[in-house]
Write a structure and sequence with these properties.
With about 130 residues, the chain is an alpha+beta fold. It folds into 2 domains: about 1-55, no CATH class; about 55-120, no CATH class. Helices cover about 30% and strands about 20% of the residues. The protein has helices at about 55-75, 100-120; strands at about 5-10, 15-20, 30-35, 35-40, 85-90, 95-100, 125-130. It has a 3-stranded antiparallel β-sheet, with no helix packed on it. A hairpin with a 2-residue loop joins strand 3 (about 30-35) and strand 4 (about 35-40). The chain is flat, with a radius of gyration of 17 Å. It starts with 5 loop residues before the first strand and ends in a 6-residue tail after the last strand. It binds zinc ion. Zinc ion (ZN) binds next to loops. Zinc ion (ZN) binds near residues 15 and 30.
Length: about 130
């Protein structure tokens, strides 16, 4: 097994992880262990890091715009909206009930964050791992 020498930024969660020296793709991440089994996974795992590609960030941005429209349709513009929407969290596999107004706010924050990344994206060098071989 080749030891990873560099880290890259995940296009989905924004965290940094080891990059496979052979494939150039990010390590598995975003799961948690439940009853000795791994549950859930970040959609950015096994994908190219943000330093070399931003196509997944663009796709997620489009999905967020779709979600924004859905939450507006659910009455999310009104913070008093009592309607709760069922959300499956892909990061954790957890299911939760949340107010549509809160989801709309979170979605718009995500859009703002990703839009800036996509607008300013240029290829850049991967980050050298501390203690990694040259
Ligand atoms: Zn990730």
């Amino acid at each position: 097994m080749t030891k990873a020498t560099h880290n890259g930024t995940c296009q989905c969660c924004g965290d940094t992880f080891a990059v496979n020296a052979k494939t150039g793709r990010l390590a598995k991440h975003g799961y948690r262990v439940m009853w000795n089994q791994e549950v859930g996974q970040c959609p950015g795992a096994y994908e190219l890091p943000l330093e070399v590609d931003c196509s997944i960030a663009k796709r997620i941005l489009a999905d967020l715009h779709k979600a924004e429209a859905e939450y507006v349709a659910l009455g999310g513009e009104d913070p008093r909206t009592a309607e709760k929407v069922h959300v499956g969290y892909w990061h954790s596999g957890r299911e939760k009930y949340k107010r549509s107004s809160l989801l709309l706010m979170e979605t718009r924050q995500g859009i703002k964050w990703l839009q800036e990344i996509v607008n300013n994206w240029t290829p850049s060098a991967l980050l050298k791992r501390v203690g990694g071989a040259a």
